[in-house]
């Protein structure tokens, strides 16, 4: 199977770029952040205090997450309900970052991610895809961008989704998530030794996609027939 790993911090353009790459290569896209977001949403819905790790771990036993593809688009199900449209708020983003620091949560989601990669050609994005989930991926890309341009992208995304957002808040949350995701003990956000760095600060989406596609093709992965 061809596996492409794309990692990087929030707002670096991972999901837009990975989605477009998957479309052009004719392979599936797995947004792994959505899985952590689903766990975060479950904890919020069940009033679980995210600082109490034992409570989160206990609650995890009843937290059923699955992925389905509807017209090639990823849908995330939580206990049988499609929650794909309810996981993009700042509250859920922070909860996802909080639960992602817990090793039992990471272990729980690891099999799900690896199963998909075992059975499909996939472009997968996240924080630890190249380092932990798919250490043998055919190509590893690490996307980055300046903090301001990342916050601006995320802010525009929230506005497009019709959410009421303030730029200062978005910037604050992104900084906080960067700090948490980079400094956690288990599978922190980190560039794999064999990953290729792409800085998207001054690149349009199309330019970023072209750059990443060039790297992918150089590594021998071609469009599916
Ligand atoms: O990519 P995202 O912004 O949707 O991710 C939400 C949070 O989930 C992120 O702050 C950290 C966590 N995450 C992770 O720890 N590992 C991944 N592979 C993907 C996301």
Structure description:
The chain is of the alpha/beta class and 225 residues long. The protein has a single domain (3-215), classed as P-loop containing nucleotide triphosphate hydrolases (Rossmann fold). The protein has nine helices and eight strands. A five-stranded parallel β-sheet has the order 2-6-1-7-8, sandwiched between helices. It is globular, with a radius of gyration of 17 Å. The site of 2'-deoxycytidine-5'-monophosphate has 15 residues, from α2, α4 and α8.
What is the compact description of this entry?
This protein has 225 residues and is α/β, with parallel strands linked by helices. It has nine helices and eight strands.
Secondary-structure element string: EHEHHEEEHHEHEHHEH
Number of domains: 1
Please state the second-level CATH architecture.
3-Layer(aba) Sandwich
Mean pLDDT: 96
| Heteromolecules bound | 2'-deoxycytidine-5'-monophosphate
CATH T-level topology: Rossmann fold
Distance between the terminal alpha carbons, to the nearest Å? 14 Å
The coarse overall form would be globular
Write down how many β-strands occur, each being a DSSP E stretch of 2 or more residues.
Answer: 8
Helix percent band: 40-55%
Largest sheet: 5 strands, parallel
Give me the side-by-side strand order of the main sheet. Answer: 2-6-1-7-8
Q: Could you tell me the radius of gyration in angstroms?
A: 17 Å
Kindly estimate the percentage of residues that lie in beta strands according to DSSP.
Answer: 15-25%
How large is the count of helical segments?
9
Secondary-structure content class:
alpha/beta
Quaternary organization: single chain
Q: Spans with pLDDT under 50 lasting ≥5 residues?
A: none
Kindly provide the name of the CATH class. Answer: Alpha Beta
CATH superfamily: P-loop containing nucleotide triphosphate hydrolases
């Amino acid at each position: 199977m061809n596996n492409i790993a794309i990692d990087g911090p929030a707002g670096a353009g991972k999901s837009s770029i990975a989605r477009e790459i998957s479309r052009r290569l004719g392979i599936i896209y797995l947004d792994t952040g959505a899985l952590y977001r689903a766990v975060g949403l479950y904890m919020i819905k069940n009033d679980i205090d995210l600082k109490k790790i034992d409570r989160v771990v206990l609650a995890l036993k009843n937290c059923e997450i699955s992925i389905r593809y509807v017209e090639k688009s990823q849908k995330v199900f939580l206990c049988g309900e499609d929650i794909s449209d309810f996981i993009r708020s700042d509250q859920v983003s922070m909860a996802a970052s909080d639960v992602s620091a817990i090793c039992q949560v990471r272990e729980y989601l690891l099999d799900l991610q690896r199963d998909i990669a075992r059975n499909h050609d996939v472009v997968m994005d996240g924080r630890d895809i190249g380092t932990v989930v798919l250490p043998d991926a055919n190509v590893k890309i690490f996307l980055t961008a300046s903090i301001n341009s990342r916050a601006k992208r995320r802010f525009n995304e929230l506005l497009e989704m019709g959410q009421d957002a303030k730029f200062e808040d978005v910037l604050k949350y992104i900084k906080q998530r960067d700090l948490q995701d980079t400094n956690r003990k288990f599978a922190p956000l980190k560039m794999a030794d064999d990953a290729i760095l792409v800085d998207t600060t001054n690149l349009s989406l199309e330019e970023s996609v072209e750059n990443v596609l060039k790297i992918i093709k150089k590594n021998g992965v071609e469009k599916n027939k």
